[in-house]
Amino acid sequence: DAGVTQSPTHLIKTRGQHVTLRCSPISGHKSVSWYQQVLGQGPQFIFQYYEKEERGRGNFPDRFSARQFPNYSSELNVNALLLGDSALYLCASSLEGASYEQYFGPGTRLTVT
Amino acid sequence: RKEVEQDPGPFNVPEGATVAFNCTYSNSASQSFFWYRQDCRKEPKLLMSVYSSGNEDGRFTAQLNRASQYISLLIRDSKLSDSATYLCVVNIEDSNYQLIWGAGTKLIIKP
């Protein structure tokens, strides 16, 4: 069975640009969560979607947005990129909500120059 | 005080030894608890969920102490392949539905 997939794997952008990251959850999983991880820290929660609705939002600015599609895949959008947005962006899928085990994709490594 | 705290380590442990880490959490409303392991520049992988009664999976044992608000992970007969960062995760079922992650404890198993 396919695990969580994310695209692209690596991305280099310049300040002020916009980026879209994509995630496909494990088949049968209805919830997708997005995390940002910088070196030496644990993942920081950005969003959780369940059944195409936003269920949770972390402490990130409005430049960050996301959505979930009818097939449960998801996109994370970041506008007006800042140098500090450089990080590993992780997508995790779970059967339902956050109280269930989450399974991560390999992540997208974003570098903002 | 951070919501989830872990000793960053590194813990340098000889192969075959037993090692234990603790993770403390600040919100008494925390409902679900997990341990993940993360290898360098890789995604976190679920190691085990932590149940109120404690649970064991091979060489790994997890315990929950609600009164003192900590969870623990014990690794017996450590292997070189156990070298990784171990992340403690807590779910708080409030209106925000999010998992709170510790920064991780780095474990290095030496031959």
Quick summary of this structure?
With about 110 residues, chain A is an all-beta fold.
Describe the structure.
By secondary structure, chain A is mainly beta. Chain A has strands at 5-7, 10-13, 19-24, 31-37, 44-50, 53-57, 64-68, 74-78, 87-94, 103-104, 108-112. In chain B, strands 2, 4, 5, 9, 10 and 11 form a 6-stranded mixed sheet that branches. A 5-stranded antiparallel sheet of chain B has the order 1-3-8-7-6, with no helix packed on it. Chain B has 111 residues and is mostly beta strands. In chain B, a hairpin with a 4-residue loop joins strand 7 (60-65) and strand 8 (70-75). Chain B is built from no helices and 11 strands. Helix content of chain B is 0%, strand content 57%. The A-B interface holds A 33, 35, 40-45, 48, 55-58, 90, 97-99, 101-107 and B 4, 31-32, 34, 42-46, 49, 87, 91, 93, 96-104.
Q: Classify the secondary structure makeup of chain B into a structural class.
A: mainly beta
Can you tell me the residue ranges of chain B where pLDDT is under 50 for at least 5 consecutive residues?
none
Percent strand of chain A equals over 45%
Radius of gyration of chain A over all CA atoms, rounded: 13 Å
Largest sheet of chain B: 6 strands, mixed
Q: Could you report the average pLDDT of chain A, rounded to the nearest whole number? A: 93
Please state the oligomeric state of the protein chains shown: heterodimer
Instruction: Sketch the major β-sheet of chain A.
Output: 7 strands, mixed
* 3D shape of chain A: globular
Q: How much helicity do the residues of chain A have?
A: under 10%
Q: How far from one another are the termini of chain A?
A: 37 Å
Q: Greatest contact pair?
A: A-B, 24 and 22 residues
Low-confidence stretches of chain A: none
Query: Would you report the number of β strands of chain B?
Result: 11
Q: Note the run of SSEs of chain B as H and E.
A: EEEEEEEEEEE
Structural class of chain A: mainly beta
Number of strands of chain A: 11
What is the 3D shape of chain B? Answer: globular
Series of H and E elements of chain A:
EEEEEEEEEEE
Report the portion of residues of chain B in β strands.
over 45%
Mean pLDDT of chain B: 91
